[in-house]
Write a structure and sequence with these properties.
Elements: H1 2-10, E1 14-17, E2 21-24, H2 35-49, H3 54-69
Antiparallel strand pairs: 1-2
Length: 84
């Protein structure tokens, strides 16, 4: 755990301040767009392009979440787990 915390601090993912403890950096601080924000912008744009109102679009998202929650998904790491 200590090694992981050190590596995250070195890359700027974590910020440590003596009086405030350790906190995760905001996505803007990391210089990378928040993937959820990007996905929601894409989804909203496509839904609006189809003429779907916000309530119908949100209902579709909720239904998809429920459908996916019922199906176990394998763990797929998004970052390399090998040292290096």
């Amino acid at each position: 755990m200590a090694r992981a915390s050190c590596e995250l601090a070195t890359t700027g993912v974590l910020h440590t301040a003596r009086c405030w403890g350790t906190r995760a950096a905001a996505s803007e601080t990391l210089g990378q767009p928040d993937p959820l924000t990007g996905a929601t912008h894409d989804f909203a744009g496509r839904a609006r392009g189809l003429g779907v109102d916000v309530d119908t679009a949100l209902a579709a998202v909720r239904a998809t979440y429920a459908e996916q929650a019922a199906t176990p998904r394998p763990f797929i790491p998004t970052h390399s787990t090998t040292p290096g």
